[in-house]
Design goal:
- The protein has 159 residues and is mainly α.
- 46% of the residues lie in helices and 4% in strands.
- The protein has 2 domains: 7-114, no CATH class; 127-159.
- The chain has helices spanning 21-26, 51-75, 81-84, 92-98, 107-114, 131-153, and strands at residues 7-9, 89-91.
- The protein has a two-stranded antiparallel sheet.
- The chain is flat and about 80 Å long.
Length: 159
Amino acid sequence: VAAPFAIIGSIGVVAQIPNFNRLLKNNDIDVELHTAGEYKRTLTLFGENTEQGREKFREELNVTHGLFKQFVKEMRPSLDIDKTATGEHWFGTQAQTLGLVDAIGTSDDLLIQEITTHEVLSVRYTRRKRLLDKIMGNAGESAERLLLRWWQRGSHPFV
């Protein structure tokens, strides 16, 4: 289920690696990298990258993309994976037309629909308060409740 304005996708893989090698060389800073295995480190942030390393890195990205496409295809067998695994993204209604989502709706719509057949739980996180915060917070809440009671009874002491 996706909202009509949700961005769905992309079935693609991206990697971006900055390289500071020239900056380090210009400042006479050496970096040593020791590895075992020809392809243990294909690209590096600080060393000089080679075309061989770049090619191996691209090859690994393509393998990852293939595994990702395979997984999506297994989960959505009717999907035209060649049409959708281009790295693009689509909005909810477009994604439904392509078969990437089953229905259009919001999370509220889904919860309201499912509440009739499922138990819906609410989970809330609260941070621990310091003792002073608890005391001051409780005093403030008490004063607020007292003023609200006065207001509801028709006694408007501050108006």
